[in-house]
Amino acid sequence: MAQRGATTTETPTPDALRPSGSLLANLSDELRRPPPFDEMDPAHVSAFVAASRQAYYAPGEPVVAPEDGPVRELFFIRRGAVTGKRGLSEVSGGAFQYEAGDLFPISAVLAQRAPTTLYHATEDTFVLVIAAEDMRALAQRSPPFGDFLNRRILKFLELSRAALQVAYSSQALAEQSLETPLVELVGHKAPVSCAPHTPLREVLGQMHERRIGSMLVVDGVGAPMGILTRSDVLGRVALPQVPLDAPVSAVMVQPVHSLPHDATAQDAALAMSTHGIRHVPVTRGGRLVGIVSERDLFALQRLSLKQVSSSIRNATSVDTLRVVAHDIRRFARTLLGQGVQARQLTALISHLNDALTTRLIELVAERHGLSLAGACWLALGSEGRSEQTIATDQDNALIRPEGSDPSHYLAFAREVNQALDDCGYPLCKGGVMAGNPELCLTLSQWRERFALWIEHGSPKDLLNASIFFDFRPLAGDETLAQALREEMMEHARTTPRFLKQLALNGLAHEAPLNWLGNIDTTAVGGHDTLDIKLQGTAIFVDVARLYALAHGVSATNTRERLETVGPLLGVPAHEAQAWIGGFDYLQLLRLHAQLDGTTVGDNPNRIAVDTLNDIDRRILKETLRVLRALQQRLKLDYDR
To answer: What's the pTM value of the predicted model, to 2 decimals?
Structure first.
């Protein structure tokens, strides 16, 4: 076995272990690829290399151990891999692995403490080692480096989100604009044009009156001859002092670059780029039928929240809402292309789904002659938490008026459930819908149901009922839901048995890391896959729900719950931010796969881990480490 941390020389000295001058340039180029070096000033990357020494570790050889005392060096892996194991995680069969491009052990170096983990090489491993004092000095000079050390998981999130933005911005542009025929863009509105002999005074007057940016000049049969735009007026009319009585043909730009009606928006964009123009006339059989501007192409890509919301509010039938539901998915894709974060995106999707569901409820209630004054439609599960992704089924319930005929409300609720299914929100396979007689209850009946779950529910009962504790009023009398929540929360907070049962559910599925610390995948469809909901987001949701109920936190949103309970648990801010960042990332990964259609098999939450890019694979592993640590905290708090 080679000497611990040695090079190929038998008796290495500190100077011998440092990179030679001939290697500095090559090492600097090598380091500029992984984060955070890819964002650092090249001089700072070179400074990192110059301050480092090289070391080699044989398979199984320890790199850093708790008995070594406070960690005084930071390690960067050039080749190979290092596995970390520690007491609690080792007992439960857990570990984690660092690979080429990783820095470790960041937390221990920053805290100037001994590591709690034994790190050893799992294969032939070559590293660069930098002293803690040099690391801290570089962190002060290089903001990207210092920021990365303090916010590693959040930094990876930013990199992943940026990669997604690039992918989706081009994809959204192609799907929403570039393939659109020009005839669809110009519509049926008659184009504004004039004859070549029309006086400038009249042309400019019409442009001002009609608030248009250009005037097309056509011949006797309607074929485009030239164009005059607002930007042309200064250079072609005002500065040369052309008389306003002169014909427009004296100053128009020609030849005019036009396209046929069956050309696409992509053709128009290319024409604008090629010729440096902002307007393209559209012709049919050589005659002018419209004009497309640069603004039209831009506007086509900006399916707005206001547009979708207005379409929902003005819908008069389920058929109309079915079309709008498709717009919600297009809107989500556009937002990803604009770099919107997962929490904002899921909140917007949930908001639009809320609006669509509410409008459906109004339409169906009106058809049934029902008033919702004494009733309340409840959103459950992910919709109750405002965390819906694209592939989401229905989870809802109904508080009906005391003494009401259940058959009337059940018929109403079933029609709403079916209409939602028609709009692309599948019926819940478990029957968690307001059209189920067991979920169409009066307020007093709901109080009894929650009391039964809290006082006598087994872990299995609570596993099936957990989504009910995330309920949120959607339509009708919201005070009914508020009264139910206040009573339920007080009962839950003061019932230790119930909290422990919830904790057991939160520990039922362990974070999917194997004993080496690699992602523990399942082979499906020829890919190494992971159910990102069951083995990821659902665990965050379960743990956040438990701590929220235990501390009287009324929020139902997972992110808000984690933000609130962190300080209540005395957790350092960076640790709570890691929980939130990890949850946000998993949500983003789900949305990415669902919008791309790259989920595996029939499960809209199963992703192919082996197709992830390097950044996503790293952050996924980092998130699962955070998730496992959160479960370990839960186990210490409730499972003993």
So the answer is: 0.60
